[in-house]
């Protein structure tokens, strides 16, 4: 069950790092040290470009860093991997194991749900999702089969459509965070801006400062 209340969730969504090991420019341990020092507030194991065995191995290391530093550890798509790694949360989308079924069967996690329209938001709310991801906000090459890019009006509409904390996702980096002000988002989720950086500490630090003004 989600042991976090609404305001704790809203807080940890500030700077939500979604991890892809294939993008890293430095060893995993060093990367984790840097992003934690830089100020990530949540971590998601996505790591879709490596086989499951490697994903679990990377996840084990990353989860250790998160646990010691009190950072929520969330697994994308894979409830089996979430269980193996004793994750705090699981993030699902419309193509994954249905949120309602997962929530009933695997109540040990809190859930995040990807939303691109108001039906998605209604679904997330009816399944008691702890938070929603709203996007894509900008174009990005990180994800294939990208859904429709949302304009600021739509982001605002979805962010206010349900009383669930929300995080924006898709192509977000230090040059465009400012444009998300007053959209009602509680924070940003990024993959390449941090994972592909030569200096993850600096990048994280800059993004963390920027999101304080959202
Ligand atoms: N869902 C919507 S866009 C996206 C996901 C997982 C990828 C975001 O990656 P990046 O590199 O931050 O644009
Ligand atoms: Mg998914």
How would you describe what is shown here?
The protein is an alpha/beta fold. The chain has one domain (6-211): Alpha-Beta Barrel (TIM Barrel), CATH 3.20.20. Helix content is 39%, strand content 16%. It has helices at 6-12, 28-38, 52-68, 79-84, 99-105, 118-126, 152-161, 192-195, 200-211; strands at residues 15-19, 42-45, 73-76, 89-92, 110-115, 131-134, 166-169, 187-190. Strands 1-2-3-4-5-6-7-8 form an eight-stranded parallel barrel, surrounded by five helices. α4 (79-84) links the parallel β3 and β4. α2 packs parallel to α3 and α2 runs parallel beside α9 (200-211). The chain binds 4-methyl-5-hydroxyethylthiazole phosphate and magnesium ion.
Brief sketch in words of this structure:
It is an enzyme of class 2 (transferase). The chain contains nine helices and eight strands.
Keywords:
Thiamine-phosphate synthase, binds magnesium ion, alpha/beta, 8-stranded parallel barrel, TIM Barrel, ThiamineP_synth_TenI, transferase, Aldolase_TIM, TMP_synthase, binds 4-methyl-5-hydroxyethylthiazole phosphate, 214 residues
Topology:
Elements: H1 6-12, E1 15-19, H2 28-38, E2 42-45, H3 52-68, E3 73-76, H4 79-84, E4 89-92, H5 99-105, E5 110-115, H6 118-126, E6 131-134, H7 152-161, E7 166-169, E8 187-190, H8 192-195, H9 200-211
Parallel strand pairs: 1-2, 1-8, 2-3, 3-4, 4-5, 5-6, 6-7, 7-8
This protein binds 4-methyl-5-hydroxyethylthiazole phosphate and magnesium ion.
């Amino acid at each position: 069950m989600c042991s976090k209340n609404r305001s704790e969730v809203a807080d940890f969504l500030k700077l939500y790092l979604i991890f892809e090991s294939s993008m890293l420019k430095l060893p995993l341990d060093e990367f984790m040290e840097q992003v934690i020092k830089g100020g990530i507030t949540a971590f998601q194991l996505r790591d879709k470009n490596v086989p499951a065995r490697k994903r679990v191995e990377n996840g084990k290391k990353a989860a250790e860093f998160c646990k010691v530093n009190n950072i929520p550890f969330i697994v994308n798509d894979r409830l089996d991997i979430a269980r193996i790694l004793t994750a705090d949360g699981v993030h699902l989308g419309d193509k994954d194991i249905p949120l309602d079924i997962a929530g009933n069967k695997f109540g040990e996690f809190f859930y995040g749900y990807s939303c691109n329209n108001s039906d998605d938001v209604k679904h997330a709310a009816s399944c008691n999702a702890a938070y929603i991801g709203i996007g894509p906000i900008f174009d990005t090459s990180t994800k294939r089969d990208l859904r429709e890019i949302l304009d600021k009006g739509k982001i605002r509409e979805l962010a206010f459509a349900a009383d669930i904390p929300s995080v924006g996702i898709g192509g977000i980096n230090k040059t465009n965070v400012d444009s998300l002000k007053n959209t009602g988002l509680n924070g940003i989720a990024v993959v390449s801006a941090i994972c592909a950086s030569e200096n993850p500490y600096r990048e994280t630090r800059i993004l963390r400062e920027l999101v304080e003004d959202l």
